[in-house]
Structure formats: structure tokens, C-alpha cells
Amino acid sequence: MSTEGSFVDGLRGTLDASGLRVAVIVARFNADITERLLTGAREALAEHGSDPSDVTIVRVPGAWELPQTAARAVRSGAFDAVVTLGCVIRGETPHFEFVCQEASSGLGAVARAADVPVVFGVLTTDDHAQAAARAGSGKNNKGYEAATAALEMIAVHRALGWTL
């Protein structure tokens, strides 16, 4: 897996997560991968000063359930950002395409309507090995990358004078 072009290294330690309330919504399907993504997200938030008590972890059955839960998290007004984590691995049926499409379009709709950052951290891979390669450590962990993207987007919103 190439990490060329990843923005993570340039942002390490430059963002401030202190006092930010972040919801991390994690799909339980393919839990061996999604738990590693969650570990990466937690590491990114902690590295940037987040208090663990300001991070709310919400578990849902699978990627299909991420958009509805993200929408509810946004509507609650309780969070400065919402990070969604999931893993869909291609199988032998068209089910993969249906779940990926709905997770993607659903989270995109939530993000466009939200006043806070909603970040897509859903892996869509051909096999388990590809998923595992994206759930490694540091910039090789897409959960870490998603949490860092959320922090960067909060900084962007603030720089533009948009209140959270």
C-alpha cells in the first residue's frame, strides 16, 4: 500500500484537539480491522491533545448503519466533529457494491448538510490483506488519518470564522 501523498506526517503535532468533542462511529463488521482503525483514531486524537473523556465511541453493526448514526450525532449538537470508521471487503455477490455505495453516498449527504466536519474512514477493499495494510500504524492507519482530517477540518472552519 502506498502512503505517498498522505498529509498525516505534515500535520503531526500541529493541530490542537484539546477541548474538542469528537464522535467516532465504528462499524463492528470486520471488527479485527475496525478495532485497529479505532486504535489509530484514538492515537491521533491523543497525540494532538484530546482528553479521552471528550471522545465518544459509538458502535454500529456495519457500514450500512454509519450514515444514520452520523446524522443523529450531528443533529445532537454535542460534537465538534464526527469520524466514521468501517470496513467492507469484496465478496462473491453484489452486496459489496450496495453497501459501499450507500455508506459513501449516505455519509456524503450527511457531511454536506452538517455544520461540523463529518469524515469518511470506511475501507472498501478487495480482500482482507488490503484492509489489514490500511489498518497498520501511523500514516498506514486510515483511522489515524480520518481523525487527523477531522482536526484539520475543524481548524479550517475556525480559520474561515465558521463557528462550531
How is this structure best described in words?
The protein has 164 residues and is of the alpha/beta class. The chain has a domain at 53-164: Lumazine/riboflavin synthase (Rossmann fold). 46% of the residues lie in helices and 18% in strands. It is built from six helices and four strands, in the order H-E-H-E-H-E-H-E-H-H. A four-stranded parallel β-sheet has the order 2-1-3-4, with helices on both faces. Helix 2 links the parallel strand 1 (22-27) and strand 2. The termini are far apart. 39% of the residues are buried. The model has no long low-confidence stretch (mean pLDDT 91).
Quaternary structure of the protein: single chain
Strand order of the largest sheet: 2-1-3-4
Structural class: alpha/beta
Helix fraction bin: 40-55%
Radius of gyration: 15 Å
